[in-house]
TrEMBL record:
Similarity comment text for this entry: Belongs to the cation diffusion facilitator (CDF) transporter (TC 2.A.4) family.
Domain of life from the UniProt record: Bacteria
One Gene Ontology cellular component: membrane
Keyword terms of this UniProt record: Membrane, Transmembrane, Transmembrane helix, Transport
Localization in the cell: Membrane
NCBIfam families the UniProt entry points to: CDF
Protein known as: Cation-efflux pump
Transmembrane segments: 12-33, 39-60, 81-99, 111-131, 158-176, 182-202
Length: 317
């Protein structure tokens, strides 16, 4: 991933963090004063979305720091632990809200939330849609292969706000119509949203652990990368290729052999072309490190070097 693409992706992640944290504060405050358990649960769901955006930001920074392995490892470990802590906190609060809403249903509900809760939910839905449209278009610009999966995932996040809206609306209508049993729709919606929050917290924990562990690509997956490098003019052999997964992205380390008689500048140019080819063909490759070695044909050929071969072409293929 180029520096410009990383910066755009980080901007999108920050917008998600700030936007969802703002929504969490808004809905949490209004939910508390309006007496809506569904809105408080929806506020927690927005907080879980912010934690998810933070996890994405951590992966992007890890990709940017990948050239400095020691620094990257320390940074990744710190950010992974932070994400896991936030996820566990979400799981704990989600359980508390689910239990609190269930107790309200068990002991009975004697009042409906105030109408201000509906206004807060409506504002939340509009802001969520704006954030979704921005990040969806951004991912299309970055040619992300996960764009459709992201679209469906973020659309599912709307279920929380929609459930809160109908829960609060039903309870308010019950207040005006005299059907007090409709009061239970608000805590029922709270239980439903709490389950969504628990699901999000579990996914964040598992993804953080998965992303912290560097998974080497299977041999059949790395073969396409090797074949791409071998097509570059000047590459005599691919001595070694390591492709490591970092979340949705891949870091590639390659050792190639070139003609030992070429200049350093020519070797650098071959490495640049190989890196460019990999990142252009494989959009999930975030960075490529190439080490250039002089080609050694081995005994007995290395002992039979003819000085008259200096006039041969410098780039071999």
């Amino acid at each position: 991933m180029t520096e410009e693409r990383v910066q755009k992706a980080e901007t999108g992640a920050w917008i998600g963090i700030i936007g969802n944290l703002g929504l969490a504060v808004l809905k949490g405050g209004v939910g508390y004063f309006s007496g809506s358990k569904a809105l408080i649960a929806d506020a927690l769901h927005s907080a879980s979305d912010a934690a998810g955006s933070f996890a994405v930001l951590a992966r992007l920074r890890n990709a940017r720091l990948s050239s400095d392995e020691d620094r990257a490892h320390g940074q990744t470990k710190s950010e992974t632990l932070t994400t896991i802590f936030l996820s566990v906190l979400l799981l704990a609060i989600g359980c508390e809200i689910a239990i609190h809403s269930a107790k309200a249903i068990y002991h009975g509900v004697d009042a409906a939330p105030k109408a201000t809760a509906l206004l807060a939910i409506a504002i939340s839905i509009v802001i969520k849609e704006v954030i979704f449209q921005y990040k969806y278009r951004l991912r299309k610009q970055l040619s992300s292969q996960q764009v459709l999966a992201y679209a469906w995932e973020r659309r599912s996040d709307m279920y929380a706000s929609i459930a809160a809206f109908f829960g609060v609306l039903g309870a308010i209508l019950g207040n005006y119509s005299g059907y007090t049993y409709l009061y239970y729709l608000d805590p029922l919606a709270g239980v439903f949203i709490a389950v969504l929050v628990l699901r999000m917290g579990y996914r964040l924990v598992t993804q953080s652990i998965h992303n912290h562990m560097e998974h080497l690509l299977q041999e059949e997956d790395a073969r396409a990368l090797i074949q791409t490098v071998q097509t570059i003019k000047g590459v005599i052999a691919v001595d070694e290729l390591r492709a490591r997964e970092h979340g949705h992205y891949v870091l590639v380390d390659v050792k190639i052999s070139v003609n030992p008689r070429i200049s350093i500048q020519e070797g650098h140019e071959i490495a640049r072309l190989a890196k460019q080819a990999l990142m252009k063909r494989f959009h999930h490759v975030s960075d490529v490190h190439i080490h250039v070695n002089p080609y050694d044909p081995g005994y007995p050929y290395k002992n039979n070097v003819d000085s008259d071969t200096d006039h041969y072409p410098t780039l071999l293929h």
